[in-house]
Specification:
The structure holds two protein chains of two kinds. By secondary structure, chain A is of the alpha+beta class. Chain A has eleven helices and ten strands. Chain A folds into three domains: 7-120, Acyl-CoA dehydrogenase/oxidase, N-terminal domain (Butyryl-Coa Dehydrogenase, subunit A, domain 1), CATH 1.10.540; 122-227, Butyryl-CoA Dehydrogenase, subunit A, domain 2 (Beta Barrel); 234-379, Butyryl-CoA Dehydrogenase, subunit A, domain 3 (Up-down Bundle). Chain B is an alpha+beta fold. Classes of the chains: A alpha+beta, B alpha+beta.
Chain lengths: 381, 410
């Protein structure tokens, strides 16, 4: 039983945290997020060149450092604390995980480029009719000579507008809900000039990130676009999604730490009725409940992180327990942070408003608390 | 980071498990399984203490020189966890887990020599005299008077919520010896012989029908000043020291896990609202899963506290947090269990349970008839008694006050 970080992990945490404190300016980030390109490519390069966090969890044979779930947690939490909008989870966690397990020459070269900050992937999985069930795949890929023809629609593809590559799930066999018969394809992409057969509708998300809806109609792909084995992509996708869920949960913990600290500080400063509002017991108890939600969220992330390498069912159960806890905490802490900041919490004047938007998105990303409670119930029957 | 037990811890767990396998008789397991509150059947509890004492495990948290065990915090946790999983009855907390620690820290050699061996072998059985009718959460306002008269203090007043007062032969009490200065000053920590003349006990019948709690009246009861623990007028220091133990070591999750597993098991066999079993009901299964998730997370939170203790770090105000989360989760689970008990949960059948005290005004059926299974008889009594969790040992509102100050600096 040991919850301490190794020396190297502590060093990683401290260097990322200090770097972001000194260099990641919230105001500038919000500006590019809303009216700019949606991200700061030079910051992304610095993540690769100065911090090395883009390669930290990638395999060593593609230039990575081979870090595991704990390193992932440490990085994601620091990014969440600084409200970093750059696409770490999409590129490094999802792209890195899926391509790393697939093997093959193309996957390898894209992996190297991800670690070097030169490539960004976006996972196109959700569909108009899939809801949160990502193995509900109606998009099809049919053989076309040596290659493939792709048809279907994908929605809210996170980071697609920033991506150099898409990873697209498509059905190559079986019925809509089958986990067998799903294949994964790697597609070169540029939102400004999508390939023939792809229509992209980019937009901003409620938490000031970028996403797109994508339509594929007869997109022609070469044989080597197939990532991993045909029909057998689901186990790797399930692991990638559980890992991304854990990373987003850790990111949420970072954001919640910041929001709670800001709220406590605000309640010590803000005076009404001749005293700091933090003197009022009803507000103290609210903040204590926020604190307890946060401590449970921290524990929940540990639970997931320490089971990411476990057998499928055990891993899924721990990740669902974690995301259910994080979803509940993100809602409670986010909503109450706004409430305790009063009108100012509703604005974009203070950090809390921006964090609240991200926490709201985190509630819904990779499944709501209710959906994960239902999955947990199914797994524990 | 590592979630597994070390090899040494795993070996210790095996040792504990084989001891429990061998020594827990069916009667003792029954007392553990059918307990209606945190207090097991008194006889079973004392019997289990005797068996543990033979092995040297009755008071593992005490210093070794007084009969404790040289265990790591992790070993303590394993012992508690495995005992609960095996269905062992709970030991009375007042002596071994509470006042003994104050006696070890503040007692005179004579007090230690008399009380500690007596507590261990069961000859001395303590009850706790803190709360008064007019002093609950505001404990320091207590007013039961102790007036010096020669070598004695003469005690007059009343204590309430005295668990097992009728079974106890000693009480540790806070009494008022001075009314000047701050209310925390002038309180004295006193050990009172319950066989002294002038003591009268009135049992309080709880909603479960049990007589576990009492009000105790003192009418000019003479207590020798040699029974003062610590210094006269300085009892608050002793009481504060003790509170840390009262809120308990951090091991609520194992008991909650067992409760959750039993509800899940029951739900799989009880009829549900839509024709299938209760486990098929999405609303029930969702609330049960939610409670189980909270239990898994609480377990990690307890392990984090444990890890901090093991490394010699201060776990901070976590005892208050764990008290709140543990008791609120327990209330969630006892409520789910009552719901799972279905219509039979309304039948009052204490005769098939193992309550913590006598049942008032109840005539058991002569043929021993039981509607349903024994857990369905336990469920409502546990539900009623468990409402105490958020009230005792410093109400959860008081714990939130503590956390606001200690964790958030408010």
């Amino acid at each position: 039983m040991d919850f301490s970080l190794s020396k190297e992990q502590e060093l990683l945490r401290d260097s990322v945290t200090k770097y972001l404190e000194a260099r990641y300016d919230l105001a500038r980030s919000r500006k590019v997020a809303t009216i700019g390109d949606g991200w700061q490519p030079e910051v992304w390069r610095a993540f690769a060149d100065d911090l090395g966090i883009l390669a930290a969890t990638l395999p060593e044979d593609v230039g990575g450092i081979g870090g595991g779930p704990v390193e992932l947690m440490v990085i994601a939490e620091a990014l969440g604390h600084a409200l970093v909008v750059e696409p770490f989870v999409d590129a490094v966690v999802l792209g890195g995980g899926l391509l790393g397990r697939a093997g093959g020459g193309r996957a390898r070269s894209v992996l190297e480029a991800i670690g070097a900050g030169e490539a960004v992937t976006a996972l196109a999985a959700a569909e108009p009719t899939s809801g949160p069930v990502l193995h509900d795949v109606a998009t099809t890929a049919r053989r076309d000579g040596d290659g493939w023809l792709l048809d279907g629609s994908k929605i809210v593809v996170s980071s697609a507008p920033l991506a150099t590559h898409l990873l697209v799930t498509a059905r190559t066999a079986g019925d809509r809900l089958d986990t067998d018969g799903i294949s994964l394809f790697l597609v070169d992409f540029d939102v400004h000039s999508p390939p023939d057969g792809v229509t992209a509708h980019p937009y901003r998300t409620i938490d000031d990130r970028r996403a797109a809806d994508l339509e594929f109609s007869g997109l022609r792909l070469p044989a080597d676009a197939l990532v991993g084995e045909v029909d057998r992509a689901w186990p790797s996708l399930a692991l990638a999604i559980d890992t991304a869920t854990t990373a987003v949960a850790a990111e949420g913990v970072g954001a919640m730490r910041k929001v709670l600290a800001d709220t406590v500080e605000y309640c010590k400063q803000r005076e009404q009725f001749g005293q700091p509002i933090g003197h009022f017991q009803v507000l103290q108890h609210r903040m204590v409940d926020m604190f307890m939600e946060l401590e449970q969220a921290v524990s929940a992330v540990y639970l997931a992180v320490l089971h990411l390498d476990a057998a499928d069912t055990e891993r899924a159960r721990a990740v669902s327990a974690a995301k259910a806890t994080i979803g509940r905490a993100a809602r409670f802490i986010g909503q109450n942070a706004v409430q305790l900041h009063g009108g100012m919490g509703m604005t974009e004047e203070l950090a809390v408003g921006h964090y609240f938007k991200r926490l709201t998105a985190i509630e819904y990303e990779y499944g709501t608390a209710e959906q994960h409670i239902a999955r947990y119930a199914e797994l524990t029957r | 980071m590592e979630l597994a037990w070390s090899a040494a811890d795993a070996a210790f767990r095996d040792e504990v498990c084989s001891f429990l396998d061998e020594k827990l008789t069916p009667e003792l397991r029954r007392a553990g399984r059918l307990a209606t509150s945190v207090y097991s059947d008194h006889e079973a509890s004392m019997e289990w203490q005797r068996i543990l004492q033979e092995r040297g495990w009755a008071a593992p948290a005490w210093p070794v020189e007084y009969g404790g065990c040289d265990w790591t915090p992790t070993q303590h946790y394993i012992f508690v966890r495995e005992s609960i999983l095996a269905g062992a009855p709970a030991l009375s907390p007042m002596g071994i887990k509470m006042v003994a620690h104050a006696i070890i820290a503040y007692g005179t050699p004579a007090q230690k020599d008399y009380f500690l061996p007596g507590i261990l072998n069961g000859d001395v059985f303590f009850c706790q005299g803190y709360s008064e009718p007019e002093s609950g959460s505001d404990l320091a306002s207590l007013s039961m008077a102790a007036v010096g008269d020669g070598d004695d203090l003469v005690v007059t007043g009343s204590k309430i919520w005295t668990t097992h007062a009728t079974e106890a032969n000693w009480m540790f009490a806070l009494v008022r010896t001075s009314r000047t200065g701050r209310k925390q000053q002038g309180i004295t920590f006193l050990l009172i012989d319950m066989t002294s003349p002038g003591i009268e006990i009135r049992p309080l019948v709880m909603t479960s029908g049990e007589e576990v709690q009492n009000q105790v009246f003192f009418d000019e009861v003479r207590v020798p000043t040699t029974n003062v623990l610590g210094r006269i007028d300085d009892g608050w220091t002793v009481a504060k020291y003790l509170l840390v133990f009262e809120r308990g070591g951090a091991a609520a999750a194992p008991a909650l896990q067992v409760m959750a597993e039993r509800v899940a098991d029951a739900a799989a066999h009880q009829p549900g609202p839509a024709g299938g079993t209760l486990a098929d009901d999405p609303s029930f299964s969702s609330r049960l899963a939610d409670a189980r998730i909270r239990t898994e997370v609480l377990e990690i939170l307890e392990y984090r506290t444990l890890a901090a203790l093991s490394e010699g770090r201060d776990p901070g105000p976590s005892s208050s947090m764990l008290k709140i989360l543990g008791t609120e989760l327990s209330q969630r689970l006892t409520q789910l269990t009552l719901e799972a008990a279905g219509p039979r949960g309304r039948a009052y059948q204490p005769h098939v349970t193992a309550p913590g005290g006598p049942i008032a005004d109840f005539v058991a059926p002569t043929d021993g008839y039981l509607s349903g299974d024994d857990w369905q008889a336990v469920a409502p009594l546990r539900y009623f008694n468990d409402r105490a969790g958020s009230i005792y040992a410093g109400s959860n509102e008081i714990q939130r006050n503590i956390l606001a100050k200690a964790a958030l600096g408010l």
